[in-house]
């Protein structure tokens, strides 16, 4: 295993890849490799948690006019940390992170994707494809065996499926605290004690189709009058979704909770977890 691993991530907000990164860093905290994280979009709530695990965290400046400082920030980190491996996490981090790895002559480069379908979409660009020859491994974070990796334009001898990681201790703790967690949210949001809590989690962007769930809540009230939808996550479409909820007069049954550090606890306390995703790949 490498002595120094630099993880390059899109952001340090709570997210699916953020949870995976936190699990990985926690599992390796007492082992040999040293780890650092570089965020492309400033700091976020994950920064403090990773720092507590002994991970060095830095971010690129996000203020207007500060993009010229990016090369200096990256060069300073590469010289200071001297990584043996760069691990890039999804979306634009796969492009920028791999370019950083080539520029810094890092010995090993690993790119990871949420799913084979999403990898196929992202790798349609010529810039991403041209970097494949210098990438040592591709990780697909999916545990769905029915997905056909051969349909993705990745070299199969360097592509590996890595199931989504969940801490067993965290699951057991969430189950044990489900009753208290449920009561806490009922009191905090002023919900009826006998309500049916539905939870959905994800970035509030067009591809997640959260609007469809808001529309469905307007129909569900005719079947289950006391059902409520708790939406966990943030994103550019939040204000549009909040406006739509008011338009269909469902704002009293739809609650936007923003980013939450303990999503698993909320899921354990709910009656139903509702998945919303783009039709071209699974949530």
Please provide a written account of the structure.
This protein is of the alpha/beta class and 283 residues long. The chain has two domains: 4-161, Rossmann fold, CATH 3.40.50; 177-273, 3-Layer(aba) Sandwich (Rossmann fold). 37% of the residues lie in helices and 19% in strands. The protein has helices at 16-27, 46-52, 70-81, 91-103, 116-122, 126-130, 168-176, 178-189, 210-220, 238-247, 263-269; strands at residues 4-9, 34-39, 56-59, 85-89, 108-113, 137-140, 159-161, 196-201, 227-232, 254-258, 272-273. A seven-stranded parallel sheet has the order 3-2-1-4-5-6-7, with helices on both faces. The chain has a four-stranded parallel sheet with strand order 10-9-8-11, with helices on both faces.
């Amino acid at each position: 295993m490498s002595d120094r691993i630099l993880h390059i991530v899109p952001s340090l907000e709570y997210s699916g890849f953020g949870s995976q990164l936190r699990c990985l860093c926690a599992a390796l905290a007492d082992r040999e490799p040293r780890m650092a994280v570089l965020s492309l979009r400033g700091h976020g709530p994950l920064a403090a948690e990773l720092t507590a695990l002994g991970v060095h965290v830095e971010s690129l400046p996000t203020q207007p006019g500060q993009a010229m400082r990016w090369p200096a920030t990256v060069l300073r980190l590469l010289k200071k940390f001297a990584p043996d491996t760069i691990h890039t996490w999804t979306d634009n981090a796969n492009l920028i992170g791999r370019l950083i790895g080539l520029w810094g002559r890092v010995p090993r480069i690993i790119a990871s994707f949420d799913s084979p379908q999403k990898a196929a979409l992202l790798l349609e660009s010529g810039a991403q494809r041209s970097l494949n020859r210098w990438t040592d491994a591709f990780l697909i974070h999916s545990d769905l065996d029915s997905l056909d990796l051969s349909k993705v334009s990745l070299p199969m001898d360097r592509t590996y499926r890595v199931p989504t990681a969940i801490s067993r201790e965290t699951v057991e703790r969430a189950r044990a605290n489900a009753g208290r967690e449920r009561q806490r949210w009922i009191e905090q949001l002023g919900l009826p004690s006998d309500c049916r809590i539905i939870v959905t989690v994800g970035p509030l962007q067009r591809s997640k189709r959260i609007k469809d769930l808001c529309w469905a809540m307007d129909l569900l009230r005719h079947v289950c009058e006391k059902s409520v939808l708790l939406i966990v996550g943030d994103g550019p479409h939040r204000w549009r979704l909040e406006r739509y909820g008011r338009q269909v007069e469902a704002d009293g049954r739809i609650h936007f909770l923003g980013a939450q550090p303990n999503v698993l606890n909320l899921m354990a306390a709910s009656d139903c977890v509702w998945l919303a995703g783009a039709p071209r790949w699974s949530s």
